């Protein structure tokens, strides 16, 4: 019953490649450094578009992406937009959901834990007094975010929850990231 | 030369509606409370999909969105994925870019500052020693994010940079947000 059958892929993750990656990083720490990039162009009002393609990682510029990802953001009408895309705060929820899920699935795979399904529901509370500058006591961003996972697996739910703590975006949202913003006018 | 002509729309933002919104919030603070939501479903490996539609705000459930936004996330091959979408950390850059841009454009509109164009380039540095659990001294998320704006406007660049500070996602990334994660197995 408890027999573990070693497979190359667990949860759709190539565990052999994962182990090779870890070995390579331990021999050459520099290859663990990645730089991700995005460019964004304003369209009108709350509507703008990001283009994501190039990144640096594993010691070189990536050359595998032939087409960029294009992502539209906008606001709903109640926030003076036209709903040409999810809004920036909603994209935070997507980013967090996708990163927690991937972290859970990858780290489970590394431990040989089979996952058959993962679904999550996220909610974030925000108070516009912050963004609109109507109160200095109200923060501009989310006051809290709640994530509920339903995972189809025989594994201990508490262990699965701990695997989520490996998520880079969980760290980005939970802890401060230094952000430098510069503006040049033309 | 310095004459300000009052228009309903500045930078594509309906300033009249913005002023009405601010008045309404000052009379009924409760309507400033918004709850954004996302659901996410794992597909395989690093590939998963978020669905974003309903939200609560201005005292009611939104009823204007007839179709959901569907967003795919994945990892590139070097991170064991198949590039079915930008990766979660790249979505953070999109979210930050779009929110900074909208904050700049909206707050400029509220002050009567005309913006003719906004472009931005973002970079975020990350070290996989964190995500892979290979070093406790390396954080899992971005170590820093750099944002460079080029704005077509006659306004003072330093003032425009200050308007970016109003951004909810800038707050979310720069400062800690309490995130609660629960896992139920089925």
UniProtKB/TrEMBL annotation, chains A, B:
<dbReference type="InterPro" id="IPR003718">
    <property type="entry name" value="OsmC/Ohr_fam"/>
</dbReference>
<dbReference type="Pfam" id="PF02566">
    <property type="entry name" value="OsmC"/>
</dbReference>
<dbReference type="InterPro" id="IPR036102">
    <property type="entry name" value="OsmC/Ohrsf"/>
</dbReference>
<protein>
    <submittedName>
        <fullName>OsmC family protein</fullName>
    </submittedName>
</protein>
<dbReference type="InterPro" id="IPR015946">
    <property type="entry name" value="KH_dom-like_a/b"/>
</dbReference>
<dbReference type="InterPro" id="IPR052924">
    <property type="entry name" value="OsmC/Ohr_hydroprdx_reductase"/>
</dbReference>
């Amino acid at each position: 019953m408890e027999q573990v059958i070693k497979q190359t892929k667990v949860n759709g993750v190539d565990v052999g490649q994962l182990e090779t990656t870890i070995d390579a990083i331990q021999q050459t720490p520099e290859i663990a450094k990645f730089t991700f990039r995005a460019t964004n162009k304003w369209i009108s009002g709350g509507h703008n578009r990001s283009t994501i393609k190039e990144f640096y990682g594993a010691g070189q510029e990536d050359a595998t992406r032939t087409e960029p990802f294009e992502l539209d953001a906008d606001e709903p009408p109640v926030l003076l937009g036209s709903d040409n895309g999810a809004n920036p705060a909603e994209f935070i929820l997507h980013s967090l959901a996708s990163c927690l899920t991937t972290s859970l699935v990858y780290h489970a795979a590394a431990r040989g834990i089979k996952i058959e399904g993962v679904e999550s529901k996220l909610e974030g509370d925000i108070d516009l007094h912050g963004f609109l500058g109507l109160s200095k006591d109200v923060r501009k961003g989310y006051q809290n975010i709640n994530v509920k996972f339903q995972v189809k697996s025989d594994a201990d739910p508490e262990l699965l929850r701990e695997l989520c703590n490996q998520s880079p975006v969980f760290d980005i949202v939970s802890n401060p990231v230094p952000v430098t913003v510069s503006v040049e006018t033309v």
